Amino acid sequence: MDKAQIQKALADIKAQPPRKFTQSYDLVINLKNLELKSNPVDLFVTLPFPKGKSVKIAAFVDRELVEQATKFCI
User: Any residues with CB less than 8 A from the CB of 62 and at least 6 apart, and which?
Assistant: First the structure.
């Protein structure tokens, strides 16, 4: 998918009539043909807008990554 398709899908969702509950959106990314042993996924993403409530995150890391993991803790 490219950026225009994602923006069109979000616009279509927002054009629907309002619901009687707080609606949220989920983004699912499938990584195909990725060899995790040779190319490990190590990524932190900061969302542009906060969700409005504090989020608790748990991370299971090796000793080498403890300093990096604590850097991202709030």
Answer: none
